[in-house]
Write a structure and sequence with these properties.
By secondary structure, this protein is mainly beta. Helix content is 6%, strand content 39%. The protein has helices at residues 32-37, 166-169, and strands spanning 2-5, 12-15, 19-21, 24-26, 46-52, 58-64, 72-78, 80-87, 98-104, 110-113, 117-123, 128-134, 143-145. Strands 1-2-10-7-12-5 form a six-stranded antiparallel beta sheet, with no helix packed on it. A five-stranded antiparallel beta sheet has the order 9-8-11-6-13, with no helix packed on it. Strands 3-4 form a two-stranded antiparallel sheet. A hairpin with a 2-residue loop joins strand 3 and strand 4.
Amino acid sequence: MIFNETKLKGAYLVEIKKLEDERGFFGRSWCQREFQEVGLEAEIKQINTSFTLKKGTIRGMHYQIDPYQETKFIRCTQGRIYDVIIDLRRESKTFMQWIGHILSEDNYRMVYVPGNFAHGFVTLTDNCEVYYPVTEFYTPGSERGIRYNDPAFDIKWPVPVEVVSLKDNSHPDFDIDLFDK
């Protein structure tokens, strides 16, 4: 596996190291030992799959607060998404900054999202499937969200947003004093 740290320290774009021949390729998409060697959280407690029907659908921006922060490992297994993460670590030099990457069934890229980051995506095609192991169980009451169009972050989505759940669209404007309470 190839680990490329992003400008948001601790977040990685991970690529499969492909062993190719006339049949196609083989590569690891998960190896606990390799993650640990890079110093990354690698104990998976839950694996989630989302399937989204329409292009332009937003899912996110979600996170869980202490002590239930989830580290996520995001991969698009069908279709194409623009995946966004926001650094919510108060002590970080990149606090409140975001980055986005295209993940698709064709590029096999994955995003390693540390705890204390918000995560979400917009679908760039119809019929998108996203597969993501997480290091913490879903814990009702500790979940939080940031609205996809919150002016505090000014995320530049590459396609018009067509579908957003009522819950994801109802988050109030970001309040730095309340976000992790």
